[in-house]
């Protein structure tokens, strides 16, 4: 992968921490109650996109950890279930 392609990909896909920070800022703006309805809906939509992206990133990281902890790299991953769900 060339450096130009790598930079382009990085710019298109924000890193997890940046997305999380943006999501936190959106929550603060929405909780303030000072946004007009259309702006609030746009912020909410962006927040949902960021939350889904973050969830996907976390699921991928979880799978990587499961693979790394597995004794048999060829064994299938089990479905993750949280006690808090």
From TrEMBL:
Catalytic reaction(s) noted: Exonucleolytic cleavage in either 5'- to 3'- or 3'- to 5'-direction to yield nucleoside 5'-phosphates
Function text: Bidirectionally degrades single-stranded DNA into large acid-insoluble oligonucleotides, which are then degraded further into small acid-soluble oligonucleotides.
Domain of life: Bacteria
Segments forming a coiled coil: none
Annotated protein name in UniProt: Exodeoxyribonuclease 7 small subunit
Top EC category: hydrolase
GO molecular function: exodeoxyribonuclease VII activity
GO biological process: DNA catabolic process
Keywords recorded for this protein, A-Z: Cytoplasm, Exonuclease, Hydrolase, Nuclease
Assigned protein family: Belongs to the XseB family.
Gene designation per UniProt: xseB
Enzyme Commission number(s): 3.1.11.6
Keyword Nucleus attached: no
Family matches, as InterPro entries: Exonuc_VII_S, Exonuc_VII_ssu_sf
Quaternary context: Heterooligomer composed of large and small subunits.
Entry keyword Transmembrane: no
Biological classification of the source: Bacteria, Pseudomonadati, Pseudomonadota, Gammaproteobacteria, Enterobacterales
Residues spanning the membrane: none
GO cellular component, one term: exodeoxyribonuclease VII complex
Locations listed in the record: Cytoplasm
């Amino acid at each position: 992968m060339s450096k130009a392609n790598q930079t382009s990909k990085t710019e298109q896909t924000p890193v997890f921490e940046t997305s999380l920070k943006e999501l936190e800022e959106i929550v603060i703006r929405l909780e303030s109650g000072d946004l007009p309805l259309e702006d609030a809906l746009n912020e909410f939509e962006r927040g949902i996109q960021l939350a889904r992206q973050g969830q996907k990133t976390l699921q991928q990281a979880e799978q990587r950890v499961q693979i790394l902890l597995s004794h048999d790299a060829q064994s299938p991953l089990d479905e993750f279930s949280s006690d808090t769900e």
